[in-house]
Amino acid sequence: MSKLMLIAGGSTLVYAVLAILMGVLPGAALSRTPPGPGVVPLTPLQAKGRDVYVANGCSYCHTQQVRPLAEDAVFGRPSAPGDYAYQTPELLGSERNGPDLTNVGVRQPSEVWQYMHLYDPRSVVPESIMPDFSFLFLVVPRAPDGVTAVPVPKPFAPEHGVVIPTRKAQALVAYLLSLKQPAIPGYHPPAAPTSPTAPAQGAAAPAATSTFDAAAGQKLFAANCASCHQASGLGIPGVFPPLKGDPVETATDPTEQIHTILEGLHGKTIGTVAYPGQMPSFAAILHDDEIAEIIDYERTSWGNNAPLATAAQVAAERAKTAH
Amino acid sequence: MPSDISTPGHDAARDVLSAYIVCAALWLVFATFVGVLLSFKFAYPEFAAHTSWLTFGRLRPIHTNDTFYAWASIGLVGLAYYIAARSSRTALYSAALAWAGLTLFNVAAIAGTITLAMGINNGTLEYREWWWPIRLVFLAALIITAWNLLATVARRSTEDIYLSNWYTIGAVLWTCIIAIVAVLPWYQYGLGQVAVSGYFMHNAVGLWFTPMALGILYYAIPKLFSRPIYSYALGVFAFWTNLIFYPIIGSHHFLYSPLPWWLQTTAIVFSVAMLVPVWGGSANFLLTMRGQPERLARSPAMFVLIGVLGYLIGSSQGTLEAFRSSQQIWHLTNYTVGHSHLTMYGFVSFVIWGGVYALLPRATGKNPDSLLMGIHFWMATVGIVIYVLALSIGGTVQGLDWIHALPFIQSVTDMAPFWLWRAVGGSLMFLSHLVFAWNVWQMTYARQRADVGAILATEAA
User: Fold this and answer.
1) N or C end of chain B: smaller count of CB under 10 Å?
2) pLDDT over 90 (residue A198)
3) Closest residue by Cα to residue A208 from A308, A279, A301, A313
């Protein structure tokens, strides 16, 4: 019996010490991490939305941790310990079959887009493999007062009636839109690689004479714009405006287009259509030369043929809006 | 095949082993059916969609938890009971306790499956998704098992405690501690919970499945190759180094996260140290098997060999993956999923199969059809090779896409062919499990045409 006690008891004692050292003590110490500046608790609706996120296992495919690596910069600034102060259970995740969601509220602030995407992800992102969460929606003959129907595009919409979000879908979208990284005072993102073709800020370069990198422009468009305006440039009728043949996109002067990308847009009427979508501001997401490349890509695609813009023009407009 | 039929307490040990393995086989079929369903959802997202409990996020934890805590845990505990009794040359301390444990394991798994399908998920904290009262049921099953195993070995008629029992009894006792640490809430808020998740994820693997499976190898290999283990001392050395190094490496699941940098670095250092018990243990097994290739053909030893190779390759790969430089490419990609299947399947599941095919016929006197055993072996082996290759290559492509700053959706479309190949490998694996379940039936409750063992037993009586 004593030998059994030695092996079983001894090893268990060793393990208990290690479990306390590696599990309990780090857990206890880090549980006291204070919230970072601007990190606030969720509202009751957002917290309910987080429960929906957990119940449906969203974090099996979406992480909420931005690593201090260049490849993660598209998802926001590196996550800091204080970001997680109010996040129990933790939702860092271990797999990115879908994009990181730490900062999705900034990247995709359109409530309409979020509803369409949840109802059927392929209605806005054709290549998406995300499951549809149509069970979080109801199909009713007509939307009750005060509830806006989700503008599901034709091939994805039910044959009869309109789609309205349930309380759970509303909470989930409220939670997703709350996912915004607060700025850390004194933190500046790494400087953009300076493009040799882009003249320095302030230099007056004449428009429409420079060339641009069409492949880079297409890549930036796909990453930042296509989920609403679509790779075809046709948008989604009545929800996200087409860029093909759009008066701003084909105007000789790119100033309004630059401002739209820098500042975002909401509730705009184009022609006779009032668009409900919310376009985010890209001022903090894209650098001047990247914005110029997107604009130039848009101005030369889908049959559009308008003069190009330069990074210098973007920089000049950015300087105006900064004050 | 030599039979254990005329030994003391044999009937109870046989019945317990049979029941555990039958339950485990049923859970394997169920859990991997869910796995195949999941794999097809990557290629065809509209497949079995629109229903809440059929969505990926609900089914994935059912697949992982049922393979972990139903298939592998029940299978390993069943074998551990039989080995404890046989290697101690005694009867089980209590068959009733073993039956109670089996009931609790099954109750936990059924309740866990239903609640996860309903969307009751413990915070999607990986491998502890079951609602906490269900995890307490599982803990109760562990405590019963620990008590029963200890009491069985305590009444041994041998001088020594055979090495297998060190591993299995240790594993059950340590896992009771893991389960308690994981369930208590007081040190699990925000980032603190991230630290506990790192600890839990790897301890549940490395101090439960690994030592349980190693314990079975230390018994099955000498039996199958008719020679003692190459070095008993090396086995003892691997026991203590596994115990001391493994609990420290968990945070390597959260490299580059906001967890303290020193905690991540410590995890990397000890991930390298893990090569000591892994290579020591693997060498011990391979040296015991050396020079007897004729014993592999048409024998459970085939499963054991793949299991040892799965342990060696999968665990060494784990060390390689723990470096920061490798994590820059592979972390958060499907490469990790390939790794977890190489270890839980290529190592743990193959060891269970080797143990079942080696020990169950000795207990019941009923042999499986050798052709069907071969079909199970080859489908499972080819399946896991396709599976791991597809996700390792695909995961690398995924990681490089991210490094090259391509639009995220590009990494999804680039994975499409690899996900399809994974589904092909997964389907083969699943089909092999149907054959395994049939073989288990033949080795347990089926009436065999030539029931040689039973006839021998009758004659001996």
Assistant:
1) C
2) no
3) A308
| CATH number corresponding to B10-460 | 1.20.210.10
User: What are B243's two structure tokens?
Assistant: 């115990």
Q: Is the pLDDT of residue A203 over 60?
A: no
- CA-based nearest residue to A201, from A321, A323, A322, A318: A318
Q: Which helix (H) or strand (E) holds B389?
A: helix B370-403
For A:120-159, CB contacts with B below 8 A are: 121-122, 125, 127-135
Long-range contacts formed by B293-302: CB under 8 A, 24+ apart: B295/B224, B295/B225, B298/B370, B298/B373, B298/B374, B299/B224, B300/B220, B300/B224, B300/B353, B300/B354, B300/B355, B300/B356, B300/B357, B300/B358, B300/B373, B301/B221, B301/B224, B301/B225, B301/B354, B301/B358, B302/B354, B302/B377
pLDDT at B445: 92
Residues with Cβ within 8 Å of B39's Cβ and at least 6 positions away in sequence, in order, are: B419, B422, B423, B426, B427
CATH of domain A44-178: 1.10.760.10
Q: Which two tokens stand for residue B107?
A: 């109750």
* Cβ proximity of A55 and A133 under 8 Å: no
Q: Closest partner residue to B199 among A14, A22, A223, by Cβ?
A: A22
Class for domain A214-321, per CATH?
mainly alpha
pLDDT for B278-296, tens place per residue? 999 999 999 999 999 999 9
Give residue B432's pLDDT.
98
Q: How far is A105 from chain B (nearest CA, A)?
A: 17
pLDDT band at A286 (very low <50, low <70, confident <90, very high): confident
A106 shares contact with chain B (CB less than 8 Å): no
Alpha-carbon gap, residue B116 to A57, rounded angstroms: 10
**Residue written as tokens 């990074």?**
A311
- The CA radius of gyration of chain B, in Å to the nearest whole number, is 22
Candidates B124, B161, B241, partner chain A, best to mutate (most A CBs within 10 A): B124
Between A69, A87, A99, which is nearest B256 by CB? A69
Per the document, the length of chain B is 461
Q: Nearest C-alpha of chain B: how many angstroms from A257?
A: 22
Of the candidates B51, B336, B406, the beta carbon closest to that of A94 is on B336
What is the rounded end-to-end Cα distance, in angstroms, of chain A?
Answer: 81
A2 touching B (Cβ < 8 Å)? no
Distance CA A252, CA B424 (A): 54
Q: Write out the residue limits of the CATH 1.10.760.10 domain(s) in chain A.
A: 44-178, 214-321
Read off the pLDDT band of B1 (50, 70, 90): low
Is the pLDDT at A283 greater than 90, yes or no? no
Asked whether residue B455 carries a pLDDT value surpassing 70, the answer given is no
- Residues 19-58, chain A, touching B (beta carbon < 8 A): 19, 22-33, 54-58
What residues form DSSP beta bridges with A139?
A163
Distances (CA, A) of A314 to A190, A197, A280: 20, 14, 17
Mean of all residue pLDDT scores within chain B: 95
Rounded Cα distance between A158 and B175, Å, is 50
Residue type, B123: G
Interface touch A83/B258, C-beta < 8 Å: yes
**Overall average pLDDT of the B453-461 stretch:** 53
pLDDT exceeds cutoff 60 at A1: no
Task: Determine contact: A285 vs chain B, CB below 8 A.
Answer: no
* CB-closest option in A79, A97, A223 to B258: A79
- Cβ atoms B391, B422 nearer than 8 A: yes
pTM of the entire structure? 0.90
